[in-house]
Specification:
This protein is 69% helix and 7% strand. The chain contains 12 helices and 5 strands. It has helices at 34-40, 61-74, 88-99, 115-148, 156-166, 171-193, 202-240, 243-249, 254-293, 297-307, 310-336, 342-374; strands spanning 5-10, 15-24, 48-52, 56-59, 80-81. Strands 1, 2, 3, 4 and 5 form a 5-stranded mixed β-sheet that branches. Helix 7 packs across helix 10, helix 9 (254-293) crosses helix 10 and helix 9 packs across helix 11.
C-alpha cells in the first residue's frame, strides 16, 4: 500500500496541476500541503487549478479535508479550481459539503459575560416574569368577575370531572401520606415525652401539628406534584397542539374555559382534603400510641379532643384554601406560558411543581407569623 503523495507543477504559466496519488486516509500520514499553499500565494498566482488523480489508490475524509482547506485558501483570490480530475465520489461529496450550509452554532465560541451583565439579565428576567404573573392574575380576576355576574363560559361537566379528579381520586395518596406523617410525628414526639412518662401528650402533639399546619402542608405538596403538574401538562399540551389558539379564534377565552374550572375545583377541594388529612394523621398517631405505648383508644380520643381546638382547625382549613389557590394558579400559569415543543411541556410541569411548593412554604411562613401576631 502506497502512502498518499502530493505533487504540483505549473503546466502553463497560469495553470497549476496538483497530482494526488497513493492512499489518502486519516489512519495514515497525509502529505503536507504547506508548500502548495505557498505556491498559490506566490507573486504569480495561478488562475486555474486542475487535478490529476490517476495514481490515487484510496481515499476517505482525509482527502476531502485537504480539498476543502484548499478551496477555503483560494476563496477571495482570482483562482478557479477545477475538480473534474478527481473521482466522482469525491466530487459529489464536495458538492454536498458546499450545498449544506454550515451550522454556525456547532462551534459557537464561548462568550465571557461579566458579573454586571449576569445581574442585569437576571433583573430583566425577574421583571418580565413578574409582569407575566400580574398579567395572568388580571385575566383570572376578570374571569372570576364574569363568573360572579353569570357571564363566564365553561362547561359544567368539565368542572364536575375536575372536582372528582382533585377530590375523590386523590384520597388514596392523601390517606397514605397523612397516616405516615402522623406516625412519624408520634414516634419523634415520643422520644422526649416518654422520658417524663408523658406519652399521653403524643395525642396533643399529633393533633395540633396536623390540624394547624402539617395536614394542609402535606396535602398542598401532594396536590402540587399530582394535580398542579397535571394542570400544567394538560394546558401545555393544548398550547403545543394549538388548541388554545383555536379557542381564541372561536372567540372563547382560554382563561374562562380552562383555568377557571380548575381553580374553582382545587380551591374547593383543598380544605376538604386538609380536613381528611388531619383525621388520617391523627389515626397514624393513634396507631403508634395504642400499639407502642399502651394508650387506650378512648383515652387518646379524649386527649385529642381537649387539645385540638376549633382555632387550630380553622387555621388549617384556611391554609388549605390558600394552598388550593396557589397550586391551581401556578399550574395553570405555567401551562399557559408553555412553549410550542414537547420539551417545553416537561419544563412547564417542573416549573409548576417548584413554583407551587415554594409558594406553599412562603404562604405557611406568612400565615404562621400572622397567627402569632394575632395571638391565635
Amino acid at each position: 500500500m502506497k502512502q498518499g503523495e502530493l505533487r504540483f507543477e505549473r503546466s502553463t504559466e497560469n495553470t497549476l496541476t496538483i497530482n494526488v496519488s497513493g492512499e489518502w486516509r486519516l489512519t495514515d500520514a497525509l502529505p503536507s500541503s504547506d508548500a502548495l499553499m505557498r505556491e498559490i500565494d506566490a507573486v504569480t498566482q495561478p488562475q486555474r487549478i486542475v487535478f490529476d488523480a490517476q495514481g490515487l489508490e484510496g481515499w476517505d475524509s482525509g482527502l476531502l479535508t485537504f480539498l476543502i482547506r484548499l478551496k477555503h485558501h483560494c476563496s477571495g483570490k482570482e483562482t478557479t479550481i477545477d475538480f473534474g480530475g478527481l473521482p466522482r465520489g469525491v466530487q459529489r461529496l464536495l458538492n454536498l459539503a458546499s450545498t449544506v450550509p454550515e451550522l454556525k452554532e456547532a462551534h459557537r465560541e464561548s462568550i465571557r459575560v461579566s458579573l454586571l451583565t449576569h445581574i442585569t439579565h437576571a433583573e430583566v428576567t425577574i421583571w418580565h416574569a413578574l409582569l407575566e404573573i400580574l398579567s395572568f392574575l388580571g385575566e383570572v380576576s376578570v374571569a372570576f368577575v364574569r363568573l360572579f355576574t353569570g357571564r363566564a363560559r365553561f362547561r359544567r361537566s368539565d368542572l364536575m370531572l375536575i372536582l372528582e379528579q382533585c377530590g375523590a381520586d386523590a384520597l388514596p395518596i392523601v390517606s397514605l401520606i397523612s397516616v405516615l406523617v402522623g406516625l412519624i410525628l408520634a414516634f419523634v414526639g415520643s422520644i422526649q415525652l416518654k422520658m417524663f412518662g408523658a406519652q399521653i401528650f403524643i395525642a396533643d402533639l399529633v393533633g395540633i401539628a396536623m390540624t394547624r399546619a402539617m395536614g394542609a402542608i402535606m396535602v398542598g405538596i401532594i396536590m402540587a406534584g399530582r394535580t398542579g403538574a397535571a394542570f400544567a401538562a394538560r394546558i401545555g399540551t393544548m398550547q403545543v397542539n394549538e388548541e388554545i389558539d383555536a379557542l381564541k379564534t372561536a372567540g372563547i377565552s382560554p382563561v374562562e374555559f380552562l383555568v377557571l374550572p380548575r381553580m374553582i375545583a382545587l380551591t374547593l377541594m383543598m380544605p376538604l382534603l386538609t380536613l381528611y388529612a388531619d383525621l388520617m394523621g391523627m389515626l397514624g398517631g393513634l396507631i403508634v400510641s395504642v400499639t407502642g405505648f399502651g394508650i387506650g383508644v378512648n383515652e387518646y380520643f379524649q386527649e385529642t379532643k381537649e387539645a385540638v381546638g376549633l382555632t387550630n382547625i380553622w387555621i388549617g382549613l384556611f391554609s388549605g384554601f390558600v394552598f388550593g389557590i396557589l397550586v391551581s394558579f401556578a399550574g395553570c400559569l405555567r401551562g399557559m406560558q408553555c412553549g410550542r415543543s414537547a420539551s417545553a411541556v416537561g419544563d412547564a410541569t417542573t416549573s409548576a411543581v417548584v413554583t407551587s411548593i415554594v409558594s406553599i412554604i412562603i404562604a405557611t411562613a406568612i400565615i404562621t407569623i400572622l397567627c402569632d401576631v394575632l395571638g391565635l
